[in-house]
Design a protein that fits this description.
The complex is a heterodimer. By secondary structure, chain A is mainly α. Chain A is built from 13 helices and no strands. Chain A has one domain. In chain A, helix 6 packs across helix 7 and helix 11 crosses helix 13. Chain B has a two-stranded antiparallel sheet. Chain B starts with a helix and ends in a 12-residue tail after the last helix. The chains are: A mainly alpha, B mainly alpha.
Chain lengths: 321, 294
């Protein structure tokens, strides 16, 4: 159990929670404020991460140019997904978005010359070399670490991720208090009423989808930097479900509930790796990995059944229907 | 080459069609897009493996036990999870998320108690029938025959029996059906039993055709099955049948070299979604779907 007392373990939990905060914030904009049932959020994360890594390794771009382009690519992905699908009924939209995220993963797996295929980013470069997109980020992180006087790189990453996450949370919070944000909520609550007031419902939904995709793209960049390697299997639909769980945990329609949900999720997700006490000690370690996801499934079920407005949600404003 | 692909497509499409009807029946009554359906298919296939392999029963006995067990699982889940949510009047979003949670629990339970190793049924993979230029394996023949029988049975059941009429009436308008004196809860139980039987059958046939399978394989089948359901129009059983067959054939035939050089076979699942996207652009509610659901 001494791992739970180590600082680097909790720093890791915090970094994961920060990345998931940004990912789930995108979902909060899309579902909590615009009512869009996006179940393909992980695709935008993949687009952001892959665009950055490919431009750095294959085109020799500076990471500081490649990263913003990764974010733009994720946003464009959101627009492209939304154009044909936003007019669909909610249930159709949910299925088509999962399908979209699986298509992105299939393309990343099979277009080996572009993405490195199932071997992941390590195969991005020429044959026999281990490609690395992370050099510039590592040196930046090193400089920040030096400036902060920290001894651990995990703690440095923790600070960087959460500074960015809090800035993004604040910007989103502000954006949703503008007239634009009020129209979004009006559309969520009654689409026909908003349309009858002359609001272009389709355009607002498209903007919300793209904004959420941009946030997922940023989460993808941090995911890439944190783990310095990734492959298509890092972007399974499961990640989207984790983001939904965070939304449910925190509360729907509340910007500042997202980091709370993400922290609770981070503790559950990382903490369940160390379920070494009874009754979990009865299982082998690979079996405990199954148990871990099972527990997450049970929590999703429990939240839906027992507390559909989330831990911090307001039942009067937004309840899962 | 082309006739062979067509037959392969018919086999894939048969499996999709059976599974899609199972998803669609429940959706028609409960507005539930059941994300756990793929894992119910895997459950049926695994139970059948247990009866066929370690217990040394014939494939037919094993398949019947597997289907019946899946139906019982479906009923138990309705009692423990879906009925309480129904009483609380949970909407589409809650039901969908609950089914995602359930899918996680089911699949991890299968992995935990069944282990991830691949397994195969005790069938002879080398028995092949040759019809002209087309070669069909025994498993494929069984899949086509079983699917044809099921499709006819389901169509007749829906069209001519009282139960079928009740199910269709409820899919059209649940409150109207309730007002007309239909026992709604009984109809829902029947739909779950049918859905469970179909999930079991589709899982077993998919496992037979793919020859080797593990507890994860249900989820890989789920998205093409959903695509088939959407293509036909969610909630329409006949649409699901047609959508499943159409998608299966489209997937296999797309690899034909006479068709603009053919699609790389690794992209077969993507073909299903492209067909779906194009179809939805033309007809946003699916082939047989209603334009709006109240």
């Amino acid at each position: 159990m001494n791992v739970l007392a180590s600082g680097s373990f909790w720093a890791f939990v915090g970094v994961v929670a920060g990345i998931y905060t940004i990912l789930a914030l995108g979902l909060q904009v899309q579902f909590g404020f615009a009512g869009l049932l996006n179940f393909g959020q992980v695709a935008f994360m993949a687009i952001g991460a892959y665009t950055m890594a490919i431009l750095v390794v294959k085109e020799g771009w500076s990471m500081w140019l490649a990263a913003p382009l990764g974010i733009v690519a994720a946003g464009v992905g959101g627009l492209l997904l939304g154009l044909p699908t936003l007019r669909l009924r909610a249930d159709y939209f949910a299925i088509v978005t999962i399908a979209f995220s699986e298509i992105v993963r299939y393309v990343a797996t099979n277009e080996t010359t572009l993405t490195g295929g199932s071997q992941g980013t390590i195969a991005l470069g020429s044959v026999g070399t281990a490609a690395q997109y992370n050099t510039e980020w590592s040196s930046f992180q090193g400089r920040v670490q030096h400036a902060l006087g920290f001894s651990s790189s995990d703690a440095t990453m923790l600070v960087i991720v959460w500074v960015v996450a809090i800035v993004l949370l604040a910007l989103t919070w502000l954006a949703l208090r503008t007239p634009w944000g009020r129209v979004l909520r009006a559309i969520r609550d009654d689409e026909d009423a908003a349309a009858s007031l002359g609001k272009n419902v389709f355009v607002y939904k498209l903007q919300a989808l793209a904004l959420g995709a941009v946030l997922a793209g940023i989460a993808g960049l941090f995911y890439a930097w944190q783990f310095s390697f990734f492959s298509p299997n890092d972007f399974e639909p499961l990640l989207t479900f984790f983001a939904w769980m965070i939304l449910l945990l925190g509360g729907i329609g509340r910007v500042w509930a997202v980091p709370v949900g993400a922290l609770v999720f981070g503790v559950i997700f990382a903490g369940t790796r160390f379920l070494s006490f009874a009754p979990f000690s009865w299982f082998a370690s690979d079996e405990r990995a199954y148990l871990r996801l099972m527990i997450i499934g049970v929590i999703i079920l429990g939240l839906v059944v027992l507390r559909p407005q989330g831990l911090l949600g307001n039942k009067r404003e937004m309840v899962l229907e | 080459m082309f006739p062979q692909l067509l037959v392969n497509g018919l086999v894939t499409g048969s499996v999709y069609a059976i599974a899609a009807v199972g998803v669609s029946l429940v959706y028609g009554l409960l507005r539930l897009v059941n994300f756990a359906y793929g894992d119910m298919m895997a459950f049926g296939a695994l139970i059948t493996f247990g009866v066929n392999g370690p217990l040394h029963q014939s494939m037919i006995v094993a398949a019947l036990v597997g289907m019946a067990t899946t139906a019982i699982l479906a009923l138990l889940l309705d009692f423990a999870l879906w009925r309480p949510l129904r009483i609380r009047r949970a909407g589409f979003m809650s039901l969908f998320l609950a089914s995602i949670g359930l899918a996680l629990v089911l699949r991890q339970a299968l992995l935990l108690f069944g282990s991830a190793q691949p397994r195969t049924y005790r069938v002879n993979p080398y028995r092949v029938f040759v019809l002209g230029s087309v070669r069909v394996s025994e498993a494929q023949t069984i899949a086509i025959a079983a699917a044809a029988a099921t499709i006819v049975a389901v169509a007749l059941l829906l069209a001519y029996t009282t139960t079928g009429r009740v199910l269709r009436a409820m899919a059209d308008d649940r409150s109207l059906a309730a007002v007309a004196g239909i026992d709604v809860e009984r109809a829902i139980r029947i739909a779950w039993i049918a859905s469970g039987l179909l999930a079991g059958l589709a899982g077993i046939l998919a496992a037979l055709v793919e020859y080797s399978f593990d507890p994860n394989f249900g989820f890989q089948l789920l998205l093409p099955v959903f695509a088939a359901v959407v293509l036909g129009g969610i909630g329409s059983a006949y649409g699901a049948l047609a959508g499943g067959l159409a998608l299966g054939i489209a997937q296999e035939v797309s690899t034909w070299s006479g068709f603009a050089g053919g699609v790389n076979p690794t992209y077969k699942p993507v073909v299903a979604f492209l067909v779906l996207t194009v179809a939805l652009l033309i007809r946003p509610q699916g082939f047989f779907g209603q334009a709006r659901v109240a």
